[in-house]
Amino acid sequence: MKMKWALLAVIFTIATVLTGCERLLVLDPKGPQAERQASDIMLSIGIMSVIVIVVFGLLVYMLVKYRASKQSADYEPPHIEGNAWVEAICVGIPVLIVAYLSFVSVKSNYIVEATPKGYEDKEPLVVYASSSNWKWHFSYPEENIETVNYLYIPTDRPIEFKLYSYGPITSFWIPQLGGQKYAMKDMVTTLHLAADVPGEYMGRNANFSGKGFAENTFNVKAMPEDEFNEWVEEVKETAKPLTEEKFDELLKPGHLGQMTFTGTHLGFSPAPEGHHGYHGHDGDHNHESSDTEKTESDTHSHEEHSDHSPHH
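and the corresponding structure tokens:
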């Protein structure tokens, strides 16, 4: 009786705790790329669930059918030859499952690496997303503005991110819009995303890059294109220009708040496209993760937070 009540208490506790959990971000897609990946995840979970149920069902059947029984001391079980059908099923079904999941994975990989479905005829917004210890720099070359640690994007328009790093390898990830992709020091990688729904989303570095990794996050706000254009005009009217000296300061290891500038760093510190990975500031700012130990005092540089809030 005590065991029964203890089991009921455990089930009740699990049920009440789970009701307070938010839905996983990767299963709450707000764009076509993330929707494709979420469907693949659910497909994998469904197939694995069927396998687990079948295996546990067979386990119970075997335990009951072939449980120990009272036999005479001289009992000898009959000799049974292998069954070709059983062996074919045990080998064939896993092979078919792996082959099917491989096909789906390869197909999905080509889909998420291309322009989002339904956006093929629209001009993409190009954003250069570069990382440094431990912050994100977003350069809008067409709009000639730059932000730090926050990203504004229009909905219903493809976004083409050009990813690279001014320090260790990082991974750019907005779970509700698509999968993660690496940003590296000596090359530019391209990530295609799109937001179908206006809203605010979480973005972060998903690759460990030193002691400041946990706070290496950024905010994403998706809005209708007319609101996005209004924000761009407001930034051009109110934000201060980004100078080379200021960018030098931003590259130092540490945490910063959200900042906004007119102009981008691409003019004096271009992305490593066609430059064999050379950054204009490489000689002065080769901030690998091993260098961060001697700059601990910089990791708490929060004094600029209140002076550079994003423009709305």
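(Above: one complete record from the training split.) The two ends are 62 Å apart (CA to CA).
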